[in-house]
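Table S2 (continued). Query chain:
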Amino acid sequence: MKRVVFAVLAGLLLLGAAGCGNKEQPSSSQQQAQEVKLGIVQIVEHPALDAARKGFLDVLAENGYKDGEKLAVDYQNAQGQQDTLQTIANKFAQEKKDLILAVATDSAQAMAAKTTKIPILITAVTDPVAAKLVKSMDKPGTNVTGTTDMNPIKEQLQLIKDVVPTVKKVGVIYNSSEVNSQVQVKACKDIAPGLGLEIVEAPVTASNEVMQGAQSLVGRCDAVYVPTDNMVVAAIASVVKVGESNKLPVFAGEENTVKGGAIGTYGIDYYKLGRQTGEMALRVLKGEKPQDMAIESQKELSLTLNPAAAGRMGVTLPDELKAKSKLVE
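Corresponding output:
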């Protein structure tokens, strides 16, 4: 009888120990429940947008949200295809992600059309108001907030004059269906007369039209300006080729396009812009509401020049500009 009682007590002790062990080790389902489900939707791959995405994820990782550790990242790229973009937006909405990063205007518009509840952080969006993503820059009033990459267009056009003093006409190649590009072209046309310049437009509607668009500017302008247009930037090699072949100087709206072969820009750092967006995401994760968080812009601008590209396009960069710029090749 004593042996039976001892066996029963021993069994109860083992069960108790096992129970304590289970409390210390949460199940895989409990671990998954603790993770923030982050969806990242990006319209196309090119260095500027990739840098913004990296900056965003780096900030989250530095603050304890690493992919696989408190964060489950689902990154989807539409590769420039609108139907694919809609499919991604539908997927994220149906899966009820906890947070979404929408990189570039098309991505943000597609995602905002699918959910008004999931917090959406945007980056590399030129004009969130014109894109109908927010009610105002100071108080979005929607589930969308984040950062704008609106260019300092006046300074960029002035840079073209500083490098090419004889310039009178500036050609602008852009995707006519991209809202952020429409905004930039309008700004160019508004600002150019005050600088004694005329804007010559070369609208395109597909990536395979970019080279043809660039070629159409030969003989019609003295320099080419490429805004932060996702389609054109992704095909910047075609524009650069036309510029080099025809000694037609090509300038850019952002630094990575300069690294891709344009002569120069005065603009923002997309990696830093992504980091700034990541800081805003942390605030959302702590309980702040997107509708009350003002859209932010980058305050620090920098001059970037590519002397080798300038030489290939028949341009000599002024020494005073080189002295105060970041030089790339």
